[in-house]
């Protein structure tokens, strides 16, 4: 059972607390340490009269039992109140034909407007204190309707709508709002229930639910509960899958409605929408179907056999091939988007194109592959009806077969590897393979979850899925933190994910979030960068693969805490939001290549480069004139020759000592000038087809150190070497 639920230090306002349910709540809260404000106007169940006796008697009873309570005889509000139970009691039963304006207005004024006013008075105080619990009292009459209670039923269902909206608005401030529909004896029910039934439905059988929903440890929010006689049940909405009864460019007719009425009302395989986003999402899906397919009047979205064959037919379908071209600019933009910074000198290789070992972060590979999703290609696949408002990114796998080129153009091929039926939704497994010419560079696997599309009878598992792996059951070997910027999502989206969910507050609100959320793949990139730094010394050639499961959203400005466990060459990790403790990436890992493997697999490519012959020839020519050149140049030049975007060879021309020398490899001391350019551009410069200055300003040639010394290279390449 655990420790008893206590409310010490909490202030609880209970309206209608002079008798019945309200009295039971007041006594129960006081017994568990709360200071109770016993509010009761003292009137009868018709709202007639007023007085202090009812509230005073309950206060006296609480104090006699050793509790703390104060009486309130009107709409008095204390700013310290943290919990409210709204039990406003008045009844004016009339058949609809006999309801007067006064009967209608007083019921709504007391039940609906009264609840609104009390809650509004408390709202700002709850927001400032980042805590609040509100219970609205609806009724079975409001949920189901009841003869003679049209006024009361309308007001009570109105309370449910009010509570649901407050639950959404209050969520970010730790304010929870729930609704109960109690069956219990009270001043109202004395006139409509037999005395023995009133006795059996004791208010004391309702109070425990109220106390639990009001406790700080209860996370329930936006719930609706029926309760009475020791029984509690939670209610939810259910909706038929319905039928589409119009065709594109054709009028919708009542005859079409009649023809599909049985399907419209068929609750088999019904959906259970839990938010306005899920409700409106289905309408968007209908519009998409009508506009793109021209559906027939007899088409229904719940035809299981059609859905099964449709999804099955999507497996193996290929999207049109596409290319992704990028330069150092896109690689740097991505690195900044996932937290790389000049504050850490080791990050310079990812954010400065002039760095001698400039590299793409390995997870930039997801940017290359995601174009298949951003372009809407999934919607074109036969058998897949995609409502992108319902698509969630569930898991991500990325495997690199060699480091990403620092710049290049990759050809990508995407295929639907499998489709899984998870009951509450469908998982689409999308594989994307990226090639440089014919060489495979990387493989992405996107696991996309389509909310509400499951239940078609498909398989639940697949051997094509890259499986997530649980973290070890021990403390982590390393923990690193990153505080994201409030502009993090705005920066990351420049890498190609333009979803307004991450930038537009209104769109985020429609999706059920308090504000725009950070891209899951941005958090993914933060964590991978930390693992590369911690366990591979930022050596991108050691990064082989990464798998992650997205668990919860992150808001820009929150602090990411990456926890890491090393087991051989696999680094398990999970990522948390430090402020809340929520796990946002779970069951994740990075596979690294051993240091010995990377050195064995990446031999010098100098022998394959045209520039090798040039450097060797420069070395031979300098043997005759080296001393003279050293006197005029007096500098050490280090060359980084790239091939396919990666460094293929390093050469040093030492014109600072002796008669000068040329050798393959980095400078043995500090180089005065480091020059980076591709093998092809080097040959263009040597042959006089590319002006070095123009190459520098166009970004094709990069230099660091004393770049003015590079002008003296003219003597080496022309006057002396006579190449």
Automatic annotation (TrEMBL):
Protein name: Peroxisomal multifunctional enzyme type 2
Recorded metabolic or biological pathway in which this protein acts: Lipid metabolism; fatty acid beta-oxidation
Molecular-function annotations in GO: 3-hydroxyacyl-CoA dehydratase activity; 3alpha,7alpha,12alpha-trihydroxy-5beta-cholest-24-enoyl-CoA hydratase activity; isomerase activity; oxidoreductase activity, acting on the CH-OH group of donors, NAD or NADP as acceptor
Key words of the record: Acetylation, Fatty acid metabolism, Isomerase, Lipid metabolism, Lyase, NAD, Oxidoreductase, Peroxisome, Phosphoprotein
Similarity comment: Belongs to the short-chain dehydrogenases/reductases (SDR) family.
Function: Bifunctional enzyme acting on the peroxisomal fatty acid beta-oxidation pathway. Catalyzes two of the four reactions in fatty acid degradation: hydration of 2-enoyl-CoA (trans-2-enoyl-CoA) to produce (3R)-3-hydroxyacyl-CoA, and dehydrogenation of (3R)-3-hydroxyacyl-CoA to produce 3-ketoacyl-CoA (3-oxoacyl-CoA), which is further metabolized by SCPx. Can use straight-chain and branched-chain fatty acids, as well as bile acid intermediates as substrates.
Native species: Macaca mulatta (Rhesus macaque)
Main localization, broad class: other
UniProt domain SCP2: residue ranges: 615-718
Ranges where the MaoC-like domain occurs: 471-587
Span of domain Peroxisomal multifunctional enzyme type 2-like N-terminal: 324-452
GO cellular component, one term: peroxisome
Subunit structure: Homodimer.
InterPro entries: HotDog_dom_sf, MaoC-like_dom, MFE-2_N, NAD(P)-bd_dom_sf, Peroxisomal_Beta-Oxidation, Sc_DH/Rdtase_CS, SCP2_sterol-bd_dom, SCP2_sterol-bd_dom_sf
């Amino acid at each position: 059972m655990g420790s008893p639920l206590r409310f010490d230090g909490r202030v609880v306002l209970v309206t209608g607390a002079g008798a019945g349910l309200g009295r039971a709540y007041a006594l129960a809260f006081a017994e568990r340490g709360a200071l109770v404000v016993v509010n009761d106007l003292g009137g009868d169940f018709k709202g007639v009269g007023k007085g202090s006796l009812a509230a005073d008697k309950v206060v006296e009873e609480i104090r006699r039992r050793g509790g703390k309570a104060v009486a309130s005889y009107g709409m008095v509000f204390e700013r310290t109140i943290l919990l409210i139970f709204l039990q406003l009691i008045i009844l004016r039963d009339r058949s609809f034909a006999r309801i007067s304006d006064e009967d209608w207005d007083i019921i709504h004024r007391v039940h609906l407007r009264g609840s609104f006013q009390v809650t509004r008075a408390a709202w700002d105080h709850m927001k400032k204190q980042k805590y609040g619990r509100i219970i609205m009292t609806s009724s079975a009459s409001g949920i189901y309707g009841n003869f003679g209670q049209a006024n009361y039923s309308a007001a009570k269902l109105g309370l449910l709508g009010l509570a649901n909206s407050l639950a959404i608005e209050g969520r970010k401030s730790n304010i929870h709002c729930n609704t109960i529909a109690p069956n219990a004896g009270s001043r109202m029910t004395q006139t409509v229930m037999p005395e023995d039934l009133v006795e059996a439905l004791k208010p004391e059988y309702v109070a425990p639910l109220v106390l639990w929903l009001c406790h700080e440890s209860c996370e329930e929010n936006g719930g609706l509960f029926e309760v009475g006689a020791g029984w509690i049940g939670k209610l939810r909405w259910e909706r038929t899958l319905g039928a589409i009864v119009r065709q594109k460019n054709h009028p919708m007719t009542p005859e079409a409605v009649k023809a599909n009425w049985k399907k419209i009302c068929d609750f088999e395989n019904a959906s259970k929408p839990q938010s306005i986003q899920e409700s409106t999402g289905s309408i968007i899906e209908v519009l998409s179907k009508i506009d793109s397919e021209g559906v027939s009047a007899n088409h229904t979205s719940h035809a299981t056999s059609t859905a099964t064959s449709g999804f099955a037919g999507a497996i193996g379908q290929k999207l049109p091939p596409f290319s992704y071209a990028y330069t150092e600019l896109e690689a740097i933009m991505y690195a900044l988007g996932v937290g790389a910074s000049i504050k850490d000198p080791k990050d310079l290789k990812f954010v400065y194109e002039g760095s001698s070992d400039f590299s793409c972060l390995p997870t930039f590979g997801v940017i290359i592959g995601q174009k298949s999703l951003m372009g809407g290609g999934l919607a074109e696949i036969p058998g897949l009806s995609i409502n992108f408002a319902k698509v969630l990114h569930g898991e991500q796998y990325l495997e690199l077969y060699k480091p990403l080129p620092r710049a290049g153009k990759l050809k990508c091929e995407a295929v639907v590897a499998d489709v899984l039926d998870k009951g509450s939704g469908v998982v689409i497994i999308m594989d994307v393979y990226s090639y440089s010419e014919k060489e495979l560079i990387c493989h992405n696997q996107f696991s996309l979850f389509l909310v509400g599309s499951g239940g078609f009878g498909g398989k639940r598992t697949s051997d094509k899925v890259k499986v997530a792996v649980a973290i070890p059951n021990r403390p982590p070997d390393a923990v690193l933190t990153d505080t994201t910027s409030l502009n993090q999502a705005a920066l990351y989206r420049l890498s190609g994910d333009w979803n307004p969910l991450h930038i537009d507050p209104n769109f985020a609100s429609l999706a059920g979030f308090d504000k725009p959320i950070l891209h899951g793949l941005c958090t993914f990139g933060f964590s991978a960068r930390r693992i590369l730094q911690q366990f591979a010394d930022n050596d991108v050639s050691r990064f082989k693969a990464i798998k992650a499961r997205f668990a919860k959203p992150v808001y820009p400005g929150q602090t990411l805490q990456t926890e890491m466990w090393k087991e051989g060459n696999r680094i398990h990790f999970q990522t948390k939001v430090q402020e809340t403790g929520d796990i946002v990436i779970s069951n994740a890992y990075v596979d690294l290549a051993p240091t010995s493997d990377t050195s064995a697999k990446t031999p010098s490519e100098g022998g394959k480069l045209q520039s090798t012959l040039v450097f060797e020839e420069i070395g031979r020519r300098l043997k005759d004139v080296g001393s003279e050149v050293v006197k005029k140049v007096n500098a050490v030049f280090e060359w980084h020759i790239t091939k396919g975007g990666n460094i293929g060879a390093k050469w040093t021309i030492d014109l600072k000592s002796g008669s000068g020398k040329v050798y393959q490899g980095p400078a043995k001391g500090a180089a005065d000038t480091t020059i980076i350019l591709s093998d092809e551009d080097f040959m263009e410069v040597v042959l006089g087809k590319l002006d070095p200055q123009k190459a520098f300003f166009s970004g094709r040639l990069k230099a660091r150190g004393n770049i003015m010394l590079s002008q003296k290279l003219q003597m080496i390449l022309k006057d002396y070497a006579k190449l």
